[in-house]
């Protein structure tokens, strides 16, 4: 199942427009905050798909019956670009346990690259709801490999992939390799072009570099 929030009337389009803007990107703090705000919007929308139970809350004047989450999802992200987006999700799902995956592109001389996973930290995922976030869904390989590595910590009941920008190719990859019974893909916008170096066009550039500075 693929849900594109940017195709609807939503404040997320304002945040994405600022993330794309080359002038506003010069302000790293604003860039990180916009990633975080997108995470908060995604969290709200995903919260509408989760299970709730009614509890009694004692107020100063009586008792209120309030529907609350039966269980908070596990929040996972791919380092380092995913950290601000992850924080936005965590701002809403503030009682969630967290998982982190260290993944990077290992480039070869011919211009091709492979995705390498170096490190994973995760709670038990057995029969849990997992939200796995990465700001950019280019080829779909990074989030796919991260998900498969996380399966070593247990099979989630359902997983929500969250990306702010996706390529058409990345969306097709997820649609082809995952069942809608297992995975829901949430995106803020879908761009048609993917370069030979697997960068989304028009995209916004390298989210990790814009958030935290260029790497060697």
Number of strand segments: 12
CA-to-CA gap between the ends?
Answer: 37 Å
Written as H for each helix and E for each strand, in order along the chain, the element string is EHHEEEHEEEEHEHEEEH
Number of helices: 6
Instruction: Provide the CATH topology.
Output: Rossmann fold
The name of the CATH architecture is 3-Layer(aba) Sandwich
Portion of residues within helices: 25-40%
Helix and strand content put the structural class at alpha/beta
Count of domain modules: 1
CATH class: Alpha Beta
Shape: globular
> Whole-number radius of gyration?
18 Å
Major sheet size, sense and barrel closure: 8 strands, mixed
- In the predicted model, the low-confidence regions spanning at least 5 consecutive residues are none
**Chain-averaged pLDDT:** 94
How much strand? 25-35%
């Amino acid at each position: 199942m693929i849900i594109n929030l940017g195709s609807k009337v939503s404040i997320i389009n304002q945040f994405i427009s600022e993330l794309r803007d080359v002038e506003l990107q010069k302000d790293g703090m604003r860039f990180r905050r916009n990633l975080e705000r997108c995470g908060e919007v995604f969290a709200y929308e995903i919260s509408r798909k989760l299970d709730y139970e009614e509890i009694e809350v004692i107020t100063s004047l009586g008792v209120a019956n309030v529907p609350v989450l039966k269980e908070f999802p596990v929040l996972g992200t791919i380092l380092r670009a995913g950290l601000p987006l992850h924080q936005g999700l965590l701002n809403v799902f503030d009682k969630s346990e967290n998982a982190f995956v260290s993944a990077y592109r290992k480039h070869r001389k011919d211009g091709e690259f492979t995705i390498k996973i170096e490190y994973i930290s995760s709670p038990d995922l057995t029969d849990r709801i997992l939200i796995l976030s990465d700001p950019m869904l280019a080829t779909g390989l990074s989030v796919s490999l991260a998900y498969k590595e996380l399966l070593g910590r247990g099979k989630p009941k359902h997983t929500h992939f969250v990306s702010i920008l996706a390529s058409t190719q990345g969306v097709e990859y997820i649609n082809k390799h995952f069942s809608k019974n297992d995975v829901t893909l949430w995106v803020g916008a879908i761009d048609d072009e993917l370069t030979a170096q697997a960068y989304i066009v028009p995209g916004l550039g390298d989210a990790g570099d814009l958030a935290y500075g260029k790497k060697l």
